[in-house]
Design goal:
Layout lengths: L1 E8 L7 H10 L4 E7 L4 H5 L7 H7 L4 E6 L8 H6 L8 E5 L13 E2 L2 E2 L5 E6 L2 E6 L6 H12 L5
Parallel strand pairs: 2-3, 3-4
Antiparallel strand pairs: 1-8, 2-7, 5-6, 7-8
Length: 158
């Protein structure tokens, strides 16, 4: 599901240090992509093709900050999955792991920055603290993400 959000601003973060870190990143003037994922998730793994997935997107977009936020991870170490996908050394990639590993609906992370998190993978595109677009359900299509990032880079005149 693709949701456009126009001028929604991220809510001020709670006292959670990880949420405050993400809030600071998305408030910057450059485009920031926040990607929620988990190592066990089949759709997340499908996005990891080194030739056409996230590693390629990062290489093609050095001015875009990408935050990978490992959630609902059941305590699984994300490093092997990321390394196999060629992810980790990129200067425009920040790898974070939420401290709550639960996938149970009652216990898991259900929102960040005042926005709902209901599925993995979920991908949000921000600029200047404003949510420009949210892909809330499922595997990202990189040509579509590229178009949304390009649109977010441009000043909106209307």
């Amino acid at each position: 599901m693709l949701t456009t959000a126009g001028l929604l601003r991220a809510a001020p973060p709670a006292a959670d240090p990880l949420e405050m870190q993400v809030a600071d990143l998305v408030a910057r003037p450059q485009v920031t992509v926040v990607h929620f994922w988990a190592p066990w998730c089949p759709n997340c793994r499908a996005e990891m093709d080194p030739a056409a997935g996230w590693a390629r997107f990062l290489a093609d977009n050095p001015g875009v900050q990408v935050v990978f936020l490992n959630i609902w991870h059941k305590g699984q170490d994300p490093a092997p999955r990321l390394a196999a996908a060629g992810l980790g050394p990129q200067p425009n990639l920040l790898l974070l792991t939420h401290p709550n590993p639960s996938r149970l609906a009652a216990d898991r992370l259900n929102s960040l920055l005042g926005l709902p998190v209901t599925w993995v993978p979920t991908t949000w595109v921000f600029r200047e603290g404003k949510l420009r677009v949210a892909f809330n359900y499922g595997e990202i299509r990189f040509p579509v993400l590229q178009q949304m990032v390009d649109d977010a880079r441009n000043e909106w005149e209307h």
